[in-house]
Amino acid sequence: MKILAINGSRRKQGNTSILLQSILKAADQAQHAIEMISLGDYRIEACTGCEGCSGSWDCVIKDDYAELIHKLDQADAVILGSPTYWYTVTSDMKRFIDRCYSLIQYPHNRQQWIGKYQDSHKVCVTAAVCEQPEESMMGNTLTLLSDFSRDIGLQLIDSVAALHCFEAGRVRGETTVLEKAEQAGTMMLQALER
Ligand SMILES: Cc1cc2nc3c(=O)[nH]c(=O)nc-3n(C[C@H](O)[C@H](O)[C@H](O)COP(=O)(O)O)c2cc1C
């Protein structure tokens, strides 16, 4: 199995990275092929809304996006993680999500769409981190990742929120959250094996 973890944080040793590693623990123990990427390492231009992807699954902008989509195409499971920046995902993650407009098509009307991966049996877990202790201060970070994953046709297995984590590494002290993250990773593998 190929597991792809996509991190919206540029802090390589940050809280999102640690949370993703906890979700990946079961896959690592089962010796599945794991790749964790930081979106900040890729050149992702902003979606221009040109509609050049209507009628195809490809984006017309030529940058590192195609490489990322190749990784998504190859993955059996995808983990999406982002810190909260101003009540939502980071700009790296938002740019990536916007460009994934090419992963949905509207064959009949604008109210109904199909996701590229909807019959692929790919599974997904989403994860989000924020500094404040109240979930409302996370804004739509986790719901955006989850709604996006479902829209492109991934089967969402679970979501993990880590609150009250400001400085890089703080989430290591949140044992309950890390246990929940490991459980989400185990459930993800079980869904893959079904
Ligand atoms: C530009 C910026 C905006 C932020 N906005 C919020 C916010 O709206 N709510 C919140 O609770 N934390 C906010 N934070 C705190 C981060 O979500 C927090 O530090 C998180 O642990 C960073 O994750 P990382 O270590 O994976 O990079 C913000 C941090 C930055 C740098």
From TrEMBL:
It comes from Desulfuromusa kysingii. Pfam families: FMN_red. The keyword Transport does not apply. Transmembrane segments: none annotated. The keyword Flavoprotein applies. This is NADPH-dependent FMN reductase. InterPro entries: Flavoprotein-like_sf (IPR029039), FMN_Rdtase-like_dom (IPR005025), ISF_SsuE-like (IPR051796). One of its GO terms (molecular function) is oxidoreductase activity. Keywords: Flavoprotein, FMN. Residues 1-117 form the NADPH-dependent FMN reductase-like domain.
